Amino acid sequence: MLTFGDYSGIASVQATIFTPGLSFHSPSIFKKLFQIEPDLFDGDPTVLPIPEDAPKEIPRITLQNNNKSLKLEVSPSRVNFFRTKISPDDDINIENFAELSSQFLNSYLGSVDAKCGRLAAVVRRFSLVENPGRVIAVHFCRKEFLEAPFDKPENFEIHAHKAYLLKGFDRVNSWVRIRSGIAQFAGQVPKSAIIVEQDINTLSKGIEEKSYNEEEITKFYKIVAEEFDIILKLYFQNK
């Protein structure tokens, strides 16, 4: 029986804000990013010469730190902030990242005079197991289905979505994806694993009119950091 404790380790966490209507000029945005937190992204930056008519969600600027545990993707329509586990002993604290990302993203919005029309957060976890497809099937399926057709699955996946009221916010989307896969760190042998991805985001409807303020953005990431665990325990209860 799989339990919540099997997924206490986090592979990566992502905070995303959507910025509809932003007037985007790469050199100007690039300069302002480094004025926000000069030492946060100390790795080599990437600025792509993308045509103005290219899709707005394609990142124009990518920043990262030297050990690649932090990465920022900036496009006219959204900003993605990532914290990635880079070694087995690199522990990610989701509450600390929620605070760091909300502070940085709020500073970005103020610096470039943009509004935030939508919020999203994603966390990815893993558990190293042999035959992950079979383990998932045993955990979620009735006995008769384990005899056939799910007796020897090479891969297995479940994907669930619901919309519900998040405390202090309107309705949000909650996605949970549980699948068999591979976990690997640089320089190490890949190992079979169960991969769990959770995504909580505010609705896309009304994104052009909506404008989340600094307090709401900070509150969203703080609440979601706790909500991820609450949801996952519904799938993997400690017995």
Q: SSE string, helix = H, strand = E?
A: EHEEEEHEHHEEEH
User: How much of the sequence is in beta strands?
Assistant: 25-35%
Q: What's the shape?
A: globular
Category by helix and strand content: alpha+beta
The overall strand count is 9
- Spans of at least 5 consecutive residues whose pLDDT stays below 50 are none
Strand order of the largest sheet: 2-3-4-5-1-6-9-8-7
Distance between the termini: 8 Å
So how many helices?
5
| Number of structural domains | 1
Largest sheet: 9 strands, antiparallel
Mean pLDDT: 92
What does this structure look like?
By secondary structure, the protein is α+β, with helices and mostly antiparallel strands. The protein has one domain (4-235). The protein is 28% helix and 30% strand. It has helices at 26-36, 94-112, 132-140, 143-147, 214-235; strands spanning 10-18, 46-47, 61-64, 70-74, 78-84, 118-128, 157-165, 171-183, 191-202. Strands 2-3-4-5-1-6-9-8-7 form a nine-stranded antiparallel beta sheet. A hairpin with a 5-residue loop joins strand 7 (157-165) and strand 8 (171-183). Helix 1 (26-36) crosses helix 2 and helix 2 (94-112) packs antiparallel against helix 5. It is globular, with a radius of gyration of 19 Å. The N and C termini lie close together (8 Å).
